[in-house]
Design a protein that fits this description.
Elements (H helix, E strand, L loop, with lengths): L7 H16 L10 H13 L5 H4 L3 E5 L7 H7 L4 E6 L2 H13 L5 E5 L12 E7 L4 H8 L3 E11 L4 H14 L1 E9 L8 E8 L13 H4 L5
Parallel strand pairs: 1-2, 1-4, 2-3, 4-5
Antiparallel strand pairs: 5-7, 6-7
Helix pairs in contact: 1-2, 1-5, 2-4, 6-7
Length: 223
C-alpha cells in the first residue's frame, strides 16, 4: 500500500483532506467515509507513483480535478512538483481551494478554467493525469497540447475495451502521442479491473489543437 510509504507529515496532510471530505457538506463526492475515501481516492491515486515520470515530475496538471484526485495525492507525495488542479466548475474549484488550505498543500494550485482555455499551460507540463474524466480520445486531446515533448499522460481506466483502445490509438497518432503501456494495478484489495494507460508525447501536437471548448467531446478524434 503506497500510503505506508508516505512520511507521517504527508499522511497528516492527506488525512486533513479526508476529514474535509467527510465533514464538508459541499464536497463534490458521494464517497465521504474516511476509510472508503482513503481507498477509492487516495490509494487509487498513489499507484501512479510507480511510474517514474510521475515521481520525477516538476510540473504536473490534473485534468477535471473534481474532488482533487489524483492531483492532491500526487502533490503531497511529490512535494517538489508544481501541481495544477484544472477544474471548470466553480463549486468544485472552491472545494479544491479549501482542501489545499486545510492540508497546507502549498505546491498545488487551482486553475478554474476549461482545459482547452488554459493557454498558459500549453507545452509546459512534464505529466498530465486524468481520472474518470472522459472517453480516452477526448482525454488525449485535452492533454497533448499541455505536455512538453517527451511528456507523459497517465489516464486511469477500468476494464479494458479493445475497441476503445483502438480509437484512442488513432487519436494519439493525430496528436503526436504514442501509447507506452497499459499497466494493471491493484491500489487496494477490493479493487478490480484497474488500469493506468500511459502515453508519451513524441512529436509536436498540430497547431490546430486545442480546439475550442467543447469540440473534443462533441466531435471526438478518430470517432
Amino acid at each position: 500500500m503506497k500510503w505506508d510509504g508516505l512520511t507521517v507529515a504527508q499522511q497528516d496532510q492527506l488525512t486533513s483532506v479526508l476529514e474535509l471530505l467527510e465533514h464538508d457538506e459541499h464536497a463534490p463526492t458521494t464517497i465521504r467515509a474516511r476509510a472508503h475515501a482513503l481507498q477509492v481516492h487516495v490509494e487509487d491515486s498513489l499507484v501512479a507513483l510507480d511510474i517514474s515520470a510521475v515521481s520525477a515530475a516538476t510540473r504536473l496538471a490534473d485534468l477535471g480535478s473534481g474532488v482533487g484526485f489524483p492531483g492532491l495525492a500526487v502533490a503531497v507525495a511529490v512535494a517538489s512538483a508544481d501541481v495544477t488542479l484544472i477544474e471548470s466548475q466553480r463549486r468544485k474549484c472552491e472545494f479544491l481551494e479549501r482542501a489545499c488550505a486545510a492540508a497546507t498543500i502549498s505546491n498545488a494550485h487551482v486553475m478554474c478554467s476549461r482545459v482547452e482555455e488554459w493557454r498558459e499551460g500549453i507545452e509546459r507540463n512534464d505529466v498530465v493525469v486524468a481520472r474518470a474524466l472522459a472517453p480516452q480520445p477526448v482525454v488525449l486531446e485535452y492533454a497533448a497540447p499541455l505536455l512538453r515533448l517527451g511528456g507523459v499522460l497517465v489516464d486511469w481506466r477500468g476494464r479494458r475495451d479493445p475497441a476503445s483502445e483502438e480509437a484512442a490509438g488513432r487519436a494519439a497518432a493525430i496528436l503526436g502521442m504514442d501509447r507506452q503501456e497499459i499497466r494493471a494495478v491493484l491500489p487496494f484489495a477490493q479493487a478490480t479491473d484497474r488500469h493506468l494507460h500511459v502515453f508519451v508525447k513524441h512529436k509536436a501536437t498540430p497547431e490546430r489543437f486545442p480546439r475550442r471548448a467543447g469540440m473534443a467531446r462533441k466531435r471526438p478524434l478518430a470517432g
